[in-house]
Automatic annotation (TrEMBL):
BP GO annotations: secondary metabolite biosynthetic process
Official protein name in the record: 4-hydroxybenzoate--CoA ligase
Organism of derivation: Ramlibacter tataouinensis
GO MF term list: acid-thiol ligase activity
UniProt domain AMP-dependent synthetase/ligase: residue ranges: 14-336
Length: 479
């Protein structure tokens, strides 16, 4: 099979496949462009298995270049175009791509610039047939988000795309009439798998945007392109609520809002429902799973498996937090050059276990409890920093922009909790008052012993909290 060919097999010729600004491309045009782009890559010397990095803002050209690599048998790697050179160059050296496709110059000897010359090269290239590959042969890599440390190159194989629309079809009712828009960018697995791949696989229309997402930009995109399914992240949903954008999205024809990337705080979910009439569907997935494996569509936040997702548990004790194992057609084959992480997270038979902890409820639903190092025992009882964050976010709703809890060690060598928080503009005093009241009302073992107020918390390029930096921030503030 060929993953790119399979992604483009469903869409009707005259249906719009991609929209970006004023540009439109039908499925017939996209198939032809990808075939010719693959011919151009082949003329450049790309062989099956060669890696090609795609480093540019989202666009129709991005999709054509990316799918053209896969069509010709290569391995496509989407990379954040805002990544500093100091972080990008070690990745390039480690992964040794055959080419780097870009708009801005990159310090790599084999560059392909997306300019008029490249477009003429595509136009003049012979349209080639898709290169058949084993279904376990690599098709694409995705870098992990780096929330807990150095990003890893995650290897997805050809069969990855076969069930890429399982969540969108089975939970959201995705059909060819739908229009998908993700505020996140295509180098992020969430947008790549759940919007681009799911949309193309179902013959729907996928909306792209070159610009970085802000509340105002999302509002502009909705007004201009009328999506029916909107994918975003909790941080941006919260910002859109605070900016009044959420209320202005009501009645715009959006059937479902989807949130993923981090746990969706209950106050944000309720606020969004009050503003728009629709509460976001909250999903759980990872770079390694590409698409969402779990979802919640009620205020409990408890998670159910998405269609085709199989789950195995580490142990049978429901009172103990545990890692779980997922199997699904979109689960990756493993990591590039990370044997220890490979052994820890992957096992034969297509199973993957993230470094996250869950509580298993009696009805089979799962409660997300954070990563291994987000769980700690205080006074003999398990505490998740995520539970503390959600409790404080609820008590301080409307006065907080960000809150993060972390486990630290007291001067006596005991485990305790600390909180880092960012108040909403003009709300510092009220936020501090509410937080102090909320902490006092918590069970003793869940009470943070220190609270630090900052101007901002560190985020990854995908908008997720960069938890690997929190401990150093706490140490600096505690001095």
């Amino acid at each position: 099979m060929n993953a790119a060919e399979q992604l483009l097999a469903t869409g009707a010729d005259g249906t719009t496949a991609l929209e970006c600004g004023d540009q439109r491309m039908t499925y017939a045009q996209l198939r032809e462009q990808v075939r010719r782009c693959a011919g151009a890559w082949r003329s450049r010397g790309v062989e099956p298995g060669d890696r090609v990095f795609v480093i540019a803002p989202d666009s129709i050209d991005w999709v054509v270049a990316y799918l053209g690599v896969i069509w010709t048998g290569g391995v496509a790697v989407g990379v954040n175009p805002r990544l500093p050179a100091a972080e990008l160059l070690p990745i390039l050296d480690d992964s040794a791509p055959r080419f780097v496709w870009c708009e801005e110059p990159v310090a790599w000897p084999r560059l392909v610039r997306n300019d008029a010359l490249w477009q003429r090269e595509i136009a003049g290239a012979p349209a080639c047939d898709a290169m058949p590959r084993d279904d376990e042969a690599p098709a694409l890599w995705i870098g992990t988000s780096g929330t807990t440390g150095i990003p890893k190159g995650t290897i997805h194989v050809q069969r990855t795309v076969t069930q890429a629309n399982a969540f969108a079809c089975g939970v959201l009712g995705l059909g060819a009439q739908d229009r998908l828009y993700a505020s996140s960018k295509l180098f992020f697995a969430y947008a790549l798998g759940n919007s681009l791949f799911a949309g193309l696989r179902s013959g729907a229309t996928v909306i792209l945007d070159r610009e970085w997402p802000t509340p105002e930009r999302v509002e502009e995109m909705v007004a201009r392109h009328s999506p029916t399914l909107l994918f975003s992240v909790p941080t941006l949903y919260q910002k859109m609520l605070g900016a009044g954008v959420a209320a202005r999205l009501a009645g715009r024809g959006i059937r479902h809002f989807v949130s993923a990337g981090e746990a969706l705080p209950l106050p944000t979910r309720r606020g969004w429902r009050d503003a728009t009439g629709l509460a976001p569907v909250s999903g759980y997935g990872t770079t390694e799973t590409l698409c969402l494996m779990l979802y919640s569509d009620d205020d409990s936040g408890l998670l159910l498996p998405t269609p085709h997702t199989e789950i195995e548990y580490s142990h049978a004790d429901p009172a103990m937090p545990q890692r779980v194992w997922f199997r699904h057609g979109t689960v990756a084959a493993g990591y590039w050059n990370r044997p220890e992480a490979q052994r820890d997270g992957f096992r034969p038979g297509g199973w993957f276990s993230p470094g996250d902890q869950f509580l298993v409820h009696g009805d089979g639903r799962l409660e997300f409890a954070g990563r291994n190092d987000d769980m700690l025992k205080i006074a003999g009882q398990w505490v998740s920093t995520l539970w503390v964050e959600q409790s404080l976010a609820g008590a301080c709703a409307g006065t907080l922009q960000q809150v993060a809890a972390l486990g630290v060690t007291s001067r006596e060598g005991l485990a305790e909790l600390a909180v880092l928080a960012v108040a909403a503009p003009g709300s510092r005093e009220e936020a501090a008052r509410r937080m102090a009241t909320a902490i006092e009302a918590m069970p003793r073992h869940r009470r943070p012993r220190s609270v630090h107020w900052l101007e901002s918390l560190p985020l990854t390029a995908t908008g997720k909290l960069q938890r690997s930096r929190l401990r150093a921030l706490h140490a600096d503030m505690a001095r």
